[in-house]
């Protein structure tokens, strides 16, 4: 990542206020991390937003040529055609290798530019069918928080955009930086992209947090064995009921969720400590360094030693990693 990473928020007519604000908060230079964030529109001036909101932008589409990352917030109504010059500017940015991410209905802008063809993508659940119908070459995943396809990322509505932006920070600067920013925003530091956007209509809204206490309990005991039976006992459910409800709430199985939590905790330890790999593995409940290396490489595509050298900020990472 360069010394200063420029994030440009593309504000289109009808932009949703929360979506516009998310990127400016996460990537604000006052976080202490090397981001600079600015906004642009089709033209310089005031962009009319959703409802009574408006946005003053000092740059036109030429700002996209200077961006390292482009964020396209949602705009209403979903699926409204965007100006040809926006399509061309997004295509040009993608051809240069610029990272482009959308929040909520912003996925339609990426789709209109052809950037999602052949890729997995998501948007707010209430517009997923429209996105799939208008753009049949996209593999729309309606029930996830965000989708990372490398240089192109999409997220579901509003709060999922916050999850996506923190995910981008995690990619750029590591878990510690993302957690620091999340603490400043008083939000959960990590919700996996595969977590469900919403629960089936037959479920009560409150059920989405019914197992939150059990997840917190598990996070405080990652160094100990965590079987489905133990998790179910804490939740005071039968293992079968617990497995079903946990999957409904999180979009993943309990053991997959625990493994991801262990790998993320290992990432934090690799960033912030000089512990040997075997000790890191023991602390997060993966047993041996070999086991940690196996799962770490499978999930992140790199060895723990490479991750430590990249994100710990020191060329002196222990060779035994």
What would your notes on this structure say?
- It is a single chain.
- Helix content is 42%, strand content 12%.
- By secondary structure, it is α/β, with parallel strands linked by helices.
- It has 2 domains: 5-185, Rossmann fold; 203-321, Homeodomain-like (Arc Repressor Mutant, subunit A).
- The strands form 3 sheets. The protein has a 6-stranded mixed β-sheet with strand order 2-1-5-6-10-9, sandwiched between helices. Strands 3-4 form a two-stranded antiparallel ribbon.
- Helix 5 (159-173) packs antiparallel against helix 6.
- The longest helix has 19 residues, at 254-272.
- It is globular, with a radius of gyration of 21 Å.
- The two termini are 23 Å apart.
- 40% of the residues are buried.
- Mean pLDDT is 87; it is low at 198-208 and 314-321.
Summed up:
This protein is α/β, with parallel strands linked by helices. The protein is 42% helix and 12% strand.
Secondary-structure blueprint of this entry?
Elements: E1 5-10, H1 17-26, E2 35-40, E3 45-48, E4 54-57, E5 69-72, H2 84-95, E6 99-102, H3 107-112, E7 120-121, H4 128-134, E8 139-140, E9 146-148, E10 152-155, H5 159-173, H6 175-185, H7 212-219, H8 228-235, H9 239-250, H10 254-272, H11 277-283, H12 289-300, H13 304-311
Parallel strand pairs: 1-2, 1-5, 5-6, 6-10, 7-8
Antiparallel strand pairs: 3-4, 9-10
Helix pairs in contact: 1-5, 5-6, 7-8, 8-9, 10-12, 11-12
């Amino acid at each position: 990542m360069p010394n200063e990473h420029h994030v440009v928020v593309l504000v289109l007519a009808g932009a949703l206020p929360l979506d516009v604000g998310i990127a400016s908060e996460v990537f604000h230079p006052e976080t202490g991390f090397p981001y600079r964030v600015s906004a642009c529109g089709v033209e310089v001036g005031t962009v009319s937003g959703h409802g009574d909101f408006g946005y003053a932008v000092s740059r036109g589409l030429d700002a996209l040529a200077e961006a390292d990352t482009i964020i396209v917030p949602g705009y209403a109504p979903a699926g409204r055609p965007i100006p040809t010059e926006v399509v061309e500017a997004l295509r040009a940015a993608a051809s240069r290798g610029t990272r482009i991410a959308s929040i909520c209905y912003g996925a339609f802008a990426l789709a209109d530019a052809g950037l999602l063809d052949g890729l997995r993508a998501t948007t707010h659940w209430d517009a997923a069918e429209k996105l799939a119908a208008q753009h049949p070459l996209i593999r729309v995943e309606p029930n996830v928080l965000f989708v990372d396809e490398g240089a192109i990322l999409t997220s579901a509505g509003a709060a999922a955009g916050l999850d996506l932006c923190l995910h981008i920070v995690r990619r750029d600067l590591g878990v510690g930086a993302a957690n620091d920013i999340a603490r400043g925003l008083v939000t959960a530091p990590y919700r996996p992209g595969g977590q469900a956007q919403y629960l089936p209509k037959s479920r009560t809204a409150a059920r989405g947090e019914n197992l939150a206490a059990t997840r917190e309990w598990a996070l405080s005991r990652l160094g100990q064995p965590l079987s489905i039976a133990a998790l179910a006992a804490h939740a005071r459910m039968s293992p079968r009921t617990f497995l079903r409800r946990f999957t409904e709430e999180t979009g993943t199985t309990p053991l997959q969720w625990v493994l991801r939590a262990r790998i993320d905790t290992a990432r934090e330890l690799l960033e912030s400590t000089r512990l040997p790999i075997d000790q890191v593995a023991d602390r997060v409940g993966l047993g041996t360094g070999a086991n940690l290396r196996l799962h770490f490489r499978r999930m992140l595509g790199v060895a723990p030693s490479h991750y430590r050298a990249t994100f710990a900020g020191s060329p002196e990472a222990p060779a035994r990693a």
